[in-house]
Amino acid sequence: MNESLQQKLQQKIDNKIKPTGALGMLETIALKAGVVQNTLSPKIVNPHIVVFAADHGIAATGLVNPYPQAVTAQMVLNFIQGGAAINVFCKQNYIALAVADAGVNFIFDESLPLIHAKIKMGTANYLHENAMIAAEVHLAMEKGKNIVADIADTGCNTIGFGEMGIGNTSSAALIMHHLLQLPLTACAGRGTGVNDKQLQQKIDTLQAVSDFHQLQKATISVYELLGKIGGLEIAMMAGAYLEAARQNMLIVVDGFIATAALLIARAISEAVLSFCIFAHASDEQGHRTMLQHLNARPLLQLGMRLGEGTGAALAIPLIRSAVAFVNEMASFEAAGVSDKE
After folding, report:
1. pLDDT > 70 fraction of the chain, expressed in percent and rounded
2. pTM exceeds cut of 0.85
3. I need a labelling partner for 18 at 20 to 30 A (CA). Which of 43, 52, 212, 246 fits?
4. Which pLDDT tens digit goes with each residue over 320-340?
5. Order of strands, edge to edge, in the sheet holding 276-278?
6. Burial of 313 (0-12, 13-18, 19+ CB in 10 A)
7. 99-118 pLDDT, tens per residue?
8. Of the listed 110, 284, 308, 341, which one is catalytic?
9. Cα(10)–Cα(19) distance, rounded to whole angstroms?
10. In 3D, which of 207, 254, 202, 195 has the Cα closest to residue 59?
């Protein structure tokens, strides 16, 4: 970290025509943006959100999700057609949107406006076997890195990640369960809307998965963890986080599943956190605990649990406001207004 730059930027923020700290978290965001971009005049350029989509073998059992697995592919087609919440928010806020097929159990036409990055037709059912082999984990992460590198080449300096995959809150809960060594009752939530009976079935099923893969042990590497219980979209997102940090991008972190992928990336490189702005506190069980573990302060608390990157899309306008005030707001001296003595 450039401490001299950080001090100068903090002084610039403090000298704006306002009481010190009066813009609250916007001041924190402005400082982070300037430090990440190594400038006293940070900018948000060509922001993107990438939605990674994949299927999970366990979803076909119906034990952890109320919606059928086919919904993943149906929603990807909806993203392409512009009908989802993430499309609405990206269009409203002038954010570019890309959708990546990481491993959907469906063959998409090659002509569709989609990043065709499929590793395979969804993961195996991790209730009985490993979700992926090691080569698939590494390939997914590498493709995530390549996707972000290509987007960085367009001049983008701010990026957020979303996901789509029926059953992926279960994979995220298992990742949290292992990496934070917490009981599954503290990690597994209602996902796409299970009732009390279904939630208990989900927890019981995931406990059986944890026992089968011995997730209570602290000796599993994150690559092994992804191979055992991960999702292709989560692995691809983890790689994307690492590349975004390497590219000195501001990273806007979405909800529960996106934060689980960040836990994976952080285990590989702690430095990735210094590039992250946390968009919102999801209403999904466990997300607040994840945020507390990361000492993260989310911008928004709207009771959302949709995924898709929707929280990130809503936070990016606030980040734009933060860099706008630091660049355009007058200082006490320029405005001829007396500062406090």
Report:
1. 97
2. yes
3. 43
4. 999 999 999 998 777 666 666
5. 115-116, 96-103, 48-54, 158-164, 250-253, 276-278
6. buried
7. 999 999 999 999 999 999 99
8. 308
9. 13
10. 202
Domains by residue range for the chain, with CATH? 48-325 (3.40.50.10210)
Task: Please tell me what DSSP assigns to residue 325.
Answer: H
- Report the percent of the chain where pLDDT is more than 90: 90
pLDDT score at 232: 98
Angle at 185 between CA 181 and CA 191, to 5 degrees: 110
| Cα–Cα distance list, 75 to 36, 120, 207, 225, 334 (Å) | 34, 18, 29, 27, 52
Residues in the chain: 341
To which residue do tokens 């990043």 refer? 115
Exposed (0-12), middle (13-18) or buried (19+): which is 153, by Cβ within 10 Å?
exposed
Of 254, 273, 252, the C-alpha closest to 264 is: 273
Spatial CB neighbours of 173, under 8 Å, sequence gap ≥ 6: 184, 187, 188, 189, 206, 260, 286
Task: Measure the CA–CA gap between 14 and 20, rounded to whole angstroms.
Answer: 5
Residue 27 bears catalytic tag: no
Which amino acid is located at 93 in the chain?
A: N
Pairing of strands 115-116, 96-103: parallel
Task: Pull the structure tokens for residue 82.
Answer: 């512009």
